[in-house]
Design goal:
The chain is 80% helix and 0% strand. It has 2 domains: 184 residues, Growth Hormone, Chain: A; 235 residues, MFS general substrate transporter like domains (Growth Hormone, Chain: A, Up-down Bundle), CATH 1.20.1250.20. The chain contains 22 helices and no strands.
């Protein structure tokens, strides 16, 4: 008897994590590289305004391709879309290697944003659909963690080696991803949805390490039933908009989800992430800014790992409140420090040289312990099934637009009025977000989506009843 084949779900997840790592390097590129490019010795010297464009334009450019994802992924499949994402990732590295102008760098970032708009929303879908229940959480959590590792890697090597060496290192990961992921199967869910049962059976056999079709027939039947139930509940985008217009409860849940995203993104995560090294440099702290940036990135990765272990034990609301509270304290402290630099006497910050590094660490640990992942999870738990596709797209577009605005304006406002102004704006947003979560976001841990929706419906009815009594 032939030995059972090796189960491919873990190797497939590890391959996808390489795409995450490469995307993390592209997303985190601006933090170490913009300060290097702003030096007079740079082969492409840039201004502060040009640096802010390099840091922010990727968020804006990711919006258009994200709107096409839903159509393309159902047409060509999860596997081919993920493989295609390697093309822009490799293009970024090659183009930057031979770039000679600021505009070429800017165009390369725009191209790289296409990969981020594919990998970040689509990779979790693929991993959920190939994984067994017992290891699904582990496989899905690998991706965001590896994106953090990618950001840590480029933060660590960016200031230590030449610009050209950085681009050559960035070329390695998309090539390695394709070389491994090429041999991985398509999602059985997608294949069954396309009525390709024989291919779905073979894919599931490879993923589970089985040699007999009988060993996977039971799971295939479960998948088929789930697809049939989902197809009965799915509605078109036009129908989703009509439901928003006609159904006050659905409209309220959708607006709560969008407000939740607004508070989390406008708290400053994209701006601080894109300018971490520059913030530490401009703080004039006696601590080495490059080493400090590496410590920050390492703490951010660690916090994501800890979050994956505790989210189903502590619950969503406590982690969100902890996250927003920590971000509020961190940005307030940064605001105070930069205010003292501008308005206090010389040497006033000498005794608190450690505060910028400590504050940035607290910010990223706090954000990683709740807001980072729940930004995408909670909105889809709150809205009814008929609005989830629309909500997912809306969350990505809103988060990208707000992140672009935050990041672009950060340097502009800091240069014109002082860095303490944007930091205190972030503080105000996180402070308001804390109370928004306290009053409007229910605990969803361990509860069915139908139960959550029912609770939100009762709350909406209660608010309307009280309003009618007041009138």
């Amino acid at each position: 008897m032939l030995p059972s084949p090796v189960p491919l779900q873990l190797p497939a997840a590890m391959a996808v994590s390489l795409a995450y790592l490469s995307a993390g390097m592209v997303i985190g590129w601006s933090s170490p590289m913009v300060p290097e490019l702003r030096k007079n010795t740079s082969h492409i010297p840039i201004t502060a305004d040009q640096g802010s464009w390099l840091a922010s334009v990727g968020l804006l450019a990711s919006v258009p391709p994200s709107l096409l994802n839903g159509v393309l992924v159902d047409a060509v499949g999860r596997r081919w879309m993920l493989l295609f994402s390697a093309v822009p990732l490799l293009t970024v590295a090659v183009w930057q290697r031979f770039a000679t102008t600021f505009w070429e760098l800017l165009a390369s970032i725009v191209v790289g944003s296409v990969s981020a708009s594919i990998i970040l929303p689509l990779a979790p879908v693929y991993l959920v659909e190939i994984a067994e229940d017992r290891i699904r959480g582990l496989l899905v959590s690998l991706g965001p963690m590896m994106a953090g590792v990618g950001a840590l890697l480029i933060t660590a090597i960016g200031p230590k080696v030449s610009f050209f060496t950085v681009t050559e290192i960035m070329m390695v990961w998309p090539v390695l991803f394709v070389a491994i992921f090429w041999w991985m199967p398509e999602s059985p869910y997608f294949l069954l949805a396309k009525h390709r049962k024989d291919e779905a059976t073979k894919a599931l056999m490879r993923l589970r390490g089985r040699i007999s079709e009988k060993e996977v027939n039971g799971e295939l039947e479960v998948i088929q039933r789930g697809l049939e139930e989902r197809s009965q509940k799915e509605i078109s985008t036009a129908d989703a908009f009509r439901e928003l217009r006609r159904n006050a409860r659905s409209r309220r849940l959708f607006m709560i989800s969008m407000a939740f995203v607004t508070f989390l993104v406008l708290g400053g995560v994209d701006a601080i992430n894109a300018n971490t090294l520059q913030i530490l440099v401009e703080s004039d702290s006696s601590l080495d800014p490059q080493l400090s940036a590496n410590v920050v990135s390492a703490c951010a990765v660690l916090s994501c790992a800890v979050f994956s272990l505790v989210v189903d034990r502590l619950g969503r609301r406590p982690l969100l409140l902890f996250s927003l509270g920590g971000c509020c304290i961190a940005t307030a402290s940064l605001g105070v420090y930069f205010f003292l630099i501008v308005y206090a006497s010389e040497g006033a910050t000498d005794d608190i040289f450690w505060l910028p590094l400590a504050s940035v660490i607290v910010f990223f640990v706090s954000f990683g312990m709740g807001s980072s992942s729940l930004l995408w999870v909670l909105p889809n738990e709150l809205v009814p099934p008929s609005l989830r596709v629309l909500t997912t797209t809306s969350v990505f577009v809103l988060a990208s637009l707000l992140g672009f605005s935050d990041t672009k304006l950060f340097q502009v406002v800091a240069d014109a009025y002082g860095a303490f102004i944007p930091f205190w704006f972030f503080t105000m947003v996180s402070f308001l977000g804390f109370f928004f979560v306290w009053f409007f976001i229910p605990e969803t841990r361990g509860r069915s989506l139908a139960d959550i929706s029912s609770e939100m419906s009762v709350e909406a009815s209660t608010h309307r009843h009280k309003s009618s009594q007041t009138i």
